[in-house]
Amino acid sequence: xxxxxxxxxxxxxxxxxxxxxxxxxxxxxxxxxxxxxxxxxxxxxxxxxxxxxxxxxxxxxxxxxxxxxxxxxxxx
Length: 76
Fold this sequence. Notes:
By secondary structure, the protein is α+β, with helices and mostly antiparallel strands. The protein has one helix at about 5-20, and strands at about 25-30, 35-40, 45-55, 55-60. The protein has one helix and four strands; from the N terminus they run αββββ. Strands 1-2-3-4 form a four-stranded antiparallel sheet, covered by helices on one side. Strand 3 and strand 4 (about 55-60) form a beta hairpin.
């Protein structure tokens, strides 16, 4: 895993805000530096990891969804 630069975080945040049509998406670096947290309105929703291989860079957005948060669940 590679570390994020402040410029990458800014670019990824703009991409996420545009892609999901939500200006309330914010990215913040984690202490490890190899990933960033994705928040919407201050609530953590996922993590983005950076992968550099063969001169190419890709980003992996990981979002866990609990079954109790889905519509129709007994806890919802």
